[in-house]
Amino acid sequence: MPPVRYPSLEQALSKQTPANRLLIKDFCADLNLTDFYSCSGYIKAVGPGRKHALKIYPGRTAGFATEDEARRAAGPGGRYEPSDTPRGTWWIEHPDNGGPRPKRKLTQSASPGNCPVCFMALPVSGVCGNC
Ligand SMILES: [Zn+2]
After folding, report:
1. What is the pLDDT of residue 14?
2. Is the domain of 48 the same as that of 71?
3. Do residues 124 and 67 share a domain?
């Protein structure tokens, strides 16, 4: 079945929570995304001059072209991670991501823990801001 085009972003997001809707509308405006399609399990969002479509899932959006783009879209404190599908793109987590959170990778950067010196929670960079 070919994807069905939504008449508006508002309608495409009718099943998203209010917090997610705000975030998604913000980055869609920021990235000049103009067309939204109903696909199996996600909303495909495209705009002029974009190489990769964004895939808007209930709990996350994938397909950001750069880390900078993902960071801006995720908003202050929002989670964003590199993706392999397609390689080189980034995905972000929505404020309401429904159900169990995606498993965090067991890497230093995904879960920096606490500073061994002052025991303050470390930022994602892993560099203590207190010491
Ligand atoms: Zn410290």
Report:
1. 93
2. yes
3. no
Q: How far is the CA of 72 from the centre of ligand 1 (A)?
A: 27
pTM of the model: 0.72
In 3D space, the residue among 61, 65, 100 whose CA is nearest the CA of residue 79 turns out to be 61
Give 125 Cα–ligand 1 centroid separation in angstroms.
13
- Give ion ligand 1 contacts, CB < 5 A: 115, 117-118, 128, 130-131
Report mean pLDDT in 10-residue bins for the chain, 131 residues: 88 94 96 95 93 93 96 94 91 84 50 84 86 90
User: How many angstroms is it from 92 CA to the middle of ligand 1?
Assistant: 28
Tell me whether residue 60 is exposed, middle or buried, using C-beta atoms within 10 angstroms of its C-beta: 0 to 12, 13 to 18, 19 or more. Answer: buried
Q: Rounded CA gap, 121 and 113, in Å?
A: 6
CA of 127 to the centre of ligand 1 (A): 8
Residue 98 lies in a domain: no
